[in-house]
Amino acid sequence: MAIYNRKNILLFILVCLLVIWVCQVLFYLLTPHETLYCMRLPSGALFLVEDPEHPQLRKWKEDQKLEDKIRSQQTDLEKLSILAQWTSTLFKPSLPFPHYPPWNANIILKMIQEKKTGGFCAQYALIFGQSCQSLGYPIRYIDLADKTGQSTHFTVEVYVPNKRKWVAFEPQEGFYWTGAGGEPLSALELREYLFSHQSEKVRGYPPIQPKTKDRINLYFHYCYYLRNNFLSIPVFVRKIKYPGTTKWLFEFYRMFYDDGSLEKLKEHNPEAFVSSRKEDFDFNFSMQEFIRKDCRSLADFDNLILTLPILKVAQIKIPTNMLEKLVKERCLNNSFFKPYARAIE
Asked: In what order do the strands lie in the sheet with 313-319?
């Protein structure tokens, strides 16, 4: 009889464990999820990339008929060039204040067309960047400034697979940068032309024409945002009000090129990364070759990152609420910055 009771107890425990496991699996399957691409850089920073199949990107691609626009082009660079030229024609530049639009191409263009806001370099960059993302091209948004820091600019680099490199685009004017031999340039390469006093050899394409020295001087200070998944998790913003004006600061989760003038940056923005290592900037990024992982907790994500080889891409499936927590706690970690929707209230 005692043996029979022990068997029943063991059976009951096994059934309970099975029920708990089934409930956990069902809860995981029924919870909304996001797909995220992630790479660990040599400096230790994580580069987070939006899924090209995100619903907002699919909507943008279909509404704007982007595949039709590039269908006749043969190479990646030709396709991207057409997208940049198209973007430059969408609206005339004007200030987007006081109703600064969210970082969502669908909303930006709608607000501009309805005359609820304007658009300058950032809005052209975001529309072009998300157009590229919707077609499967990795992008990174870049912030630039001249030597004084008074003149600033926001634009995009796109990873061009058949060139195996990042290329700097200027979607407001519809061109990409080229060097002395006509080769497309990354922002860091353009900066090297500037510092070697050869900026007169730099051209914009198309058409092949020189650009003003002031424009090239904007590449003196250079950084890129370490994530582009601003549709899954909106950009974090800090608004500082001054008499008669408001200054907008966007999240400092970025990779800054160390030019010797950034001593106080980390002190006030611990989430920022500063590096002069070329491999933190000129790395390959393929969305066709990756490690596929499911992360059910932040601990799962942390374990993945610890074992993820440097410069290897991981495709991660993660619950939506956990992705927001991941970005807040593992990337931003700055209480002064709030998600876009709360920052504008």
From this structure: 46-50, 33-40, 313-319, 291-294
Helix 121-134 to helix 105-113 angle (10° resolution) is: 130
165-170 and 152-160 beta bridge pairing: antiparallel
Q: How far apart are CA 95 and CA 219, in angstroms?
A: 22
Question: In 195-269, which ranges are E strands?
Answer: 203-205, 209-210, 221-225, 236-242, 245-250, 254-257
Q: Domain boundaries in the chain?
A: 31-343
pLDDT at 209 over 90: no
**Residue positions counted in the chain:** 345
- At residue 273, the 3 state secondary structure works out as strand
> Helix 55-63 crosses helix 105-113 at what angle (to 10 degrees)?
50
Neighbours of 199 (CB within 10 A): 19
Tokens of 159: 């990873």
* 319, 36 contact by CB (below 8 A): no
Which strand ranges, in their side-by-side order, compose the sheet holding 139-145? 209-210, 203-205, 175-178, 165-170, 152-160, 139-145, 221-225, 254-257, 273-275
Provide the total of helices (H) and of strands (E) in the chain, helices listed first: 12, 16
Distance CA 237, CA 248 (A): 7
Record the tokens describing residue 299, joined without a space: 């601990």
Q: What is the pTM of this model?
A: 0.90
| pLDDT above 70 as % of the chain | 92
> β-pairing, 221-225 with 209-210?
unpaired
112 CB-contact burial (10 Å; exposed 0-12 / middle 13-18 / buried 19+): buried
